[in-house]
Amino acid sequence: MADKIFVALASYCDDMLEFTIKSAYNSAKNKENIIFGVVEQNYENNRESIKSFEFSQQIRYCHIFPNDSLGVSWARHLCFSLYDNEEYFLQVDSHTYFEENWDENLIYQYNELLNKSNKPIISTYPYGFTIDENSEINYNKPSGKTILVLRPKSELVLTKDNLVLQFRAEHIHSSEAILGCHIAAGFLFAKGNFIEEIPYDPYLYFHGEEQSLAIRSFTKGWDIYHPKWIPLYHLYKKVNTKYDTHHWSGDTSKQRDFEWTYLQTRAKKRLEKLIFGELNDSIYGLGNIRTLQQYIEFSKIDYFNLSFK
């Protein structure tokens, strides 16, 4: 499927889902090449509304009640199952705004990176956008002279009981993509076979999913690049609203067979199993192209000595 892009969208009680789908489609240069894999976790089944879009034949839609959801990694695992051999893969959050010709932009950057790597990944935390009271979209277009490089938050510590880290974007002056050690789950672009080689681990929950993706990608021979252009923007928080639609928020969490605290604990143990090689007989384990020690030397994140720089 030459130049088709599979856009994976896992959405949880997000009223911006349809906005994101329309923004991606309307802003694409080659609209006919955009294929959506949508897993919507919502009380309301919006299939009828989404299937009324003029490009509905390009949308693969799956509805899950929030009571039955086991978190973002589980939902993104389902999104991956909607893939059908498209040439490229893009994963974003369901509250994303796209620039004009974003598809051409990403494919161009990808082809440039093929001069440096056989298996490049484009990923970083996107710049933000806001929507004002008049429904106007506001964002600051980056200068193109700064790369957002992902590094662990310095105030955090690794412990033998918790190897989960959180990351932030550091501004590095450069006009060229920078080789990195971490993947942003909310903006990930690669060749479509990434889905086959790095399947989403459904036993993860929230924090730790990006570490798993990064470590497995590196050890399976993929190279992560933080790009010089980011042709999309992320809504980090709506004005005058609370964070009340997280998977662990509200009464819904109490109605599930698995409480979020259990899912979080299970995910921490899952990351430990990955790092200590206990998943190597699994499709969710380490690769054999590079070693975890090589990742540690490159990333300066030492999971065995519990330190990072």
Descriptive overview:
By secondary structure, the chain is α/β, with parallel strands linked by helices. It has one domain: Spore Coat Polysaccharide Biosynthesis Protein SpsA, Chain A (Alpha-Beta Complex), CATH 3.90.550.10. It has 8 helices and 16 strands. It has helices at residues 17-27, 47-50, 72-80, 102-113, 194-197, 209-219, 260-275, 292-299, and strands at residues 5-12, 34-41, 59-64, 88-92, 96-98, 120-123, 130-131, 137-138, 146-152, 167-173, 178-180, 187-191, 223-226, 232-234, 301-302, 307-308. Strands 3-2-1-4-12-6-13-11 form an 8-stranded mixed beta sheet, sandwiched between helices. α6 (209-219) runs parallel beside α7. The protein is globular, with a radius of gyration of 19 Å. The N and C termini lie far apart (42 Å).
